[in-house]
Amino acid sequence: MGKYKLMNVADGRIFDDKGWILDDPDGKAPSLVRAVFEQKQLHVGDDSLGLYKFADWMPIQRLLENPSCPITYKSEKLAKKLGLNSLYITFSGWWPERGARMTTCSFKETEAYSVCARLGEGQKDQVLVVASAGNTARAFAKVCSDNGIPLLLCVPQDNIKALWFDKPLNPCVKLFTTASGSDYFDAIQLSNFVCELPGFLAEGGAKNIARRDGMSTTMMSAVTTIGRIPDFYFQAVGSGTGAIAAWEANLRFLEDGRFGQNKARLFVSQNKPFVPMYDAWRQDSRALLPYDADQARRDAAEICAPVLSNRKPPYSLAGGLYDALKDTNGDILAVSNEEAQAAKGLFLETEGRDIYSAAGVALASLVQAINNNKVKPDDVVMLNITGGGEKEFQEAHQLFHLEPDHIFPIAFTKEDVAEVANRIFKK
Fold first, then answer.
1. Is residue 59 one of the residues assigned to a domain?
2. What is the C-alpha separation between 77 and 81, in angstroms, rounded?
3. At what angle do helices 241-256 and 321-328 cross, to 10 degrees?
C-alpha cells in the first residue's frame, strides 16, 4: 500500500494526511488536494488482488473483500469499423470471458473499493454518507455490505431502480431518497445536511483522493496493458472526476518514466440537453454558467444517461476538470440520446457486449471526433467503457432491490433531516 503525502494543487503545498482530509486546512483558494506517492515507479501486483494490484498508487489503509478491476484489451471489430489501428477499450463491468467481474456492472466499484479501504481507525465508528445518481450508490452498497461498513446512501427517488443486487444487503446499509421530480443535486444537499450531524462522515466525492485514485485504475490498466500512455482518452462525464483521475495518473506515469512522456488528450462528453460543462467550455469559461435549477431538473430528466446529471461538478477549482482539459489540450463534446443509443448498438454489434448509456455517450463522442478529423487512424486511443454486461448479469442472477428507509420531499429542512437520521441510526 502506497506511502504518500498530500499536495494542494493550487499552491503546491505538501502536507501530511491526518486521517480523512478532503481540503487543505491552510488553503487560500478552492483547490483539490492530490496524493503524492513515495513510490514513483508503479509495481503491478498479481491479478488476484483485483484493483489493489495498483496499491502503490492508492491511498488505502487495508484490503477489502471481493475486489474487482477494470480490464483493457485491443479492439479489432469496433476498431476496424471506426478506421482505427490502435483502439484500446478499458472495460469496467461484467464480462467474465474477458476477466471483468464487477457484479454491479459499473466502474463506480473502483471508487468504492478505494474509498472504503481508506477508512482507518478514526472513522470506524462513523456512518459513511454517499450521495449518488444511482451507480455509485450500488457500488458503495455492495462494498460496504460485503465488508460490514455502516453506510447511508442519498439518492433521488426516480433513480432507485438502479439499486439492484445479486444478494440481500447487510442491514448496515441504509437509504434516504429525495422525492420524485428531484435530481442528483437535491440528493447532494440531503447528504450535506446529514454530514453536519455527529457520527456521520462525508465521503467527499471528487475531493476524496481515494475516490479519484480508485478511478485512476482505469488509466493504470490501460497504460500497463498498452505499454505506453495513449494519445487520446475518451469518457462520458457527469462530474468529470474520472477524467481528472486519468489526468493525475498520467502525471504519475510521466514521473515513472517507462511509458512515454506525452499527456493523453482528454476528450470528455456530456449528454444533451444536460450540458453545463460543455456550455462553459465552449465559452472558455472556468466558471460554470448560470443554470436555473428547475431547468436543470427538466434537462436531467430528458437524458438517457441520468448518471451524467451533476449540477455542481468539480470543474472550476484548481486541479479540476477545466485545468485537466487545458493541461492536456482536451475538449468537451455533446452527444444526443439518439447518438448514444446508436453507439450502444454499435458496441453490441462489434464487441458483443451491452453497455450503459453513459458508455454509449463516450463511444458516440469518439465517433464525432473521428468524423471531425480530430482523431487520426494511427492515434493510440483509450476508450473508457464505464459500465456494461448488465443484461447478461441480471439474466443469470436473482435480483434484490434496496428500498428507502425514508423519502424526503424536495423542500426539506435541516431539522427534518436531523430528526430522521438520528431516529433511524439511533444516534
1. no
2. 6
3. 50
